[in-house]
């Protein structure tokens, strides 16, 4: 396998649910967000641009005001019993960077570790149309239930949220053309490698020094 190092730091990840109506019109925040990410160089491929333009980020962040939902911020979405944040939705630039690293295409079969709110899975579901399928995993049943509701309300019929450990993958649907982790890791999860198709790509945030993380892309060469 070969690895490519990203120049982007601290890919924090996301989680939650939705029930907010879409926003359209001259001040459509989806269009503004996509343009900002294109102008900054984070978003380049047309399929990813179109996905950002047509997916309501605010709908996956109930209780968050419209302006905040589209800012360049990571937004906390779940806390533990002590009030410590245990989950957040990544800043848009981090999401865009990982999608571009992944390079998913129409017809691809894709696995995501870290279901979060379902927003990433919604973007990915649109990118792999027509013919593609996305499975997004999480160990938190509340997040999986929320992501499932959000995806259903958003009309994303080719993305499925499943209760499972992302590090173990989902072997029953393997091999996958692309696998993406939205949660950091200290090393490449061994069980995932056998689920990646020959020529497939794995995108994974890895801790490289203390709390510093970078997003790496790994490609599987041939049948190795």
UniProtKB/TrEMBL annotation:
GO terms for cellular component: cytoplasm. GO terms for molecular function: protein-L-isoaspartate (D-aspartate) O-methyltransferase activity. It is an enzyme of class 2 (transferase). Keywords: Cytoplasm, Methyltransferase, S-adenosyl-L-methionine, Transferase. InterPro entries: PCMT (IPR000682), SAM-dependent_MTases_sf (IPR029063). It comes from the Bacteria. It is found in: Cytoplasm. GO terms for biological process: methylation. Coiled coil: none annotated. Belongs to the methyltransferase superfamily. L-isoaspartyl/D-aspartyl protein methyltransferase family. This is Protein-L-isoaspartate O-methyltransferase.
């Amino acid at each position: 396998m070969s690895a490519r190092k990203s120049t982007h730091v601290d890919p924090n990840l996301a989680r939650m649910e939705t029930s907010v109506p879409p926003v359209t019109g001259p001040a459509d925040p989806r269009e503004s967000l996509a343009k900002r990410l294109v102008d900054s160089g984070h978003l380049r491929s047309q399929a990813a641009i179109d996905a950002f333009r047509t997916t309501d980020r605010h709908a996956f962040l109930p209780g968050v005001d419209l302006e905040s939902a589209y800012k360049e911020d990571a937004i906390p979405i779940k806390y533990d019993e002590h009030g410590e944040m245990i989950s957040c939705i990544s800043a848009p630039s981090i999401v865009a960077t990982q999608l571009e690293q992944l390079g998913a295409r129409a017809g691809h079969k894709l696995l995501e570790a870290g279901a979060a709110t379902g927003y990433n899975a919604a973007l990915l579901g649109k990118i792999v149309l027509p013919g593609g399928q996305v499975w997004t995993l999480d160990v938190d049943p509340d997040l999986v239930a929320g992501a499932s509701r959000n995806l259903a309300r958003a009309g994303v019929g080719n993305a499925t949220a499943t209760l499972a450990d992302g590090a173990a993958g989902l072997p029953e649907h393997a091999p996958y053309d692309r696998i993406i982790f939205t949660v950091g890791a200290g090393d490449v999860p061994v069980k995932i490698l056998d689920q990646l198709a020959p020529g497939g790509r794995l995108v994974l945030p890895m801790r490289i020094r203390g709390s510093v993380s970078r997003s790496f892309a790994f490609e599987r060469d041939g049948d190795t």
